[in-house]
Amino acid sequence: MRREKERIGQEPEKKRWDRNFGDLLQEMRVAQTGVQILFAFLLTLPFSNGFTKTSDFQKDVYVFALLSAAFAAAMIIAPVAFHRALFRQGRKPELVRYAHRMTTGGLAFMLVSMVSSILLITDYLLSKPVAILVTGAAGLWFLAFWVAIPWFRRGWIDDDSEETDEAVPAERVTEDGRRVSSRAS
After folding, report:
1. The whole model's pTM is what?
2. What is the distance between the alpha carbons of residues 181 and 177, in angstroms, rounded to a whole number?
3. Domain count across the chain
4. Is the separation of the CB atoms in 96 and 82 below 8 Å?
5. With 0-12 CB in 10 A as exposed, 13-18 as middle and 19+ as buried, what is 139?
6. Which residues contact 86 (CB under 8 A, 6 or more apart)?
7. 87, 162, 181, 184 — which has fewest CB within 10 A?
8. How far apart are CA 24 and CA 150, in angstroms?
């Protein structure tokens, strides 16, 4: 873990921003696909046969879930427009910070939309108290994996990486991006 932190600390700033941007793009691809599928599902729901049987409460929850999914989609896709506006202006740090904020906000709206969708479906199928209980449990489940675990493990590097560190010579990255052994010969 120590060597991994040292390697990250010796990484040139431009390379770090490029790596952070690439990592963020990969995360956004996953989130973007999920929110688009959820949004598409919610858009088609009113046109299904059973939707006319929904209660006023269920229709309100539906609208809330739909708007949350729309907000999530807007925020998760926003970094693409921002990237287009800043393309080749050498402002990658600003882009990464903006994309991070938009993706985080988009994930929050996606969480709200998913939990609202669960409430909508469970309230349609089950009694209201059971629906609220199931939805609360699902919400806590999402919060555990999307917020609590990442927050508590934010400084975490796999324990397994320590074992592999011993077999691999320590390296550092120079200003021009070359890798140089840090160990004395």
Report:
1. 0.70
2. 13
3. 1
4. no
5. middle
6. 94, 95
7. 184
8. 15
Angle 144-149-151 from CA coordinates, rounded to 5°:
115
CA-CA distance, 74 to 28, in Å (whole number)? 12
Q: Would you state the structure tokens that stand for residue 135, as one six-digit string? A: 């939805």
Average model confidence (pLDDT) for the chain?
81
Query: How does residue 28 score in pLDDT terms, banded at 50, 70 and 90?
Result: confident
Of 99, 118, 105, the closest CA to residue 38 belongs to 118
- Tell me, what amino acid is at 137? A
Mapped onto helix, strand or coil, the DSSP state of residue 183 is coil
Structure confidence by residue, pLDDT tens digits, 72-85:
999 988 888 887 77
Do the domain assignments include residue 142? yes
Token pair of 113, please?
Answer: 């939309």
CB atoms within 10 A of CB 160: 8
Q: Which residue has the tokens 């431009």?
A: 14
- Residue 144 within any structural domain of the chain: yes
pLDDT at 53: 92
What span, in angstroms and rounded, lies between the C-alpha atoms of 39 and 45? 10
Residue given tokens 């060597």 in the structure block: 3
